[in-house]
Design a protein that fits this description.
single chain, alpha/beta, six-stranded mixed sheet, 8 helices, globular
Length: 248
Amino acid sequence: MYRLVLLRHGESEWNKENRFTGWTDVDLSERGIKEAIQAGKTMKEKGFVFQYAYTSYLKRAIKTLVYSMEEMDQLWIPVEKTWRLNEKHYGFLQGLNKKETVDKYGEEKVLLWRRSFNIAPPPLPESDPRHPVNDIKYKYINEEGATPGTESLSDTINRIMPYWHQEIIPRLKKHKEIIISAHGNSLRAIVKHVKQITDEDIITLNLPTGIPYVFEFDEDINLLNDYFLADEATLKALMDEVANQTKK
């Protein structure tokens, strides 16, 4: 059996402030650090021994991986960082308070920008300091799509899937147990693909921060089972917390 763990980063400072984050490189909050440590404790208790890890270019995902692997005494494992696992780029929404944005544009419009499959928020111009072309992390990446001004979930899927097929799946077949520490929407993209979730139903999928999500595959990488490492009451409460971030 092959096991892949998806771990959304712990709560960030902007999660705490209920702001759209996207590619903005925001750090973990105190709660987020505790969530990452607890994720490591839980995975250790369940007997996970990873051989390889992936994460994004954003510090909240990187640090979540470090805190959890330190708790598991697995800081030695190889880690590959890629911009392709970054959060969905939220365009002009980045930095805005979610509920204040709902007050201005309406709950339905903001839900489409935030969760829909193929509708992206209005883009940032390249002159905006928040645009990735102005960030040194992406200066030397000569790949199509590496510096978007905005993205829909569809765009996010399109940049992740080649990497999934060419890099992550071969690595899973080789090592049998790997972890991806990333973001709500980049992980939703993977979940949508693996579970064949429809474009309509993906809107309602909310991944909580800091809760490991386990996928078990057979030798042909057919999905056998998937489950969160949390009890149902805790999981529901955390999922509702994510869902309600834009509720009036």
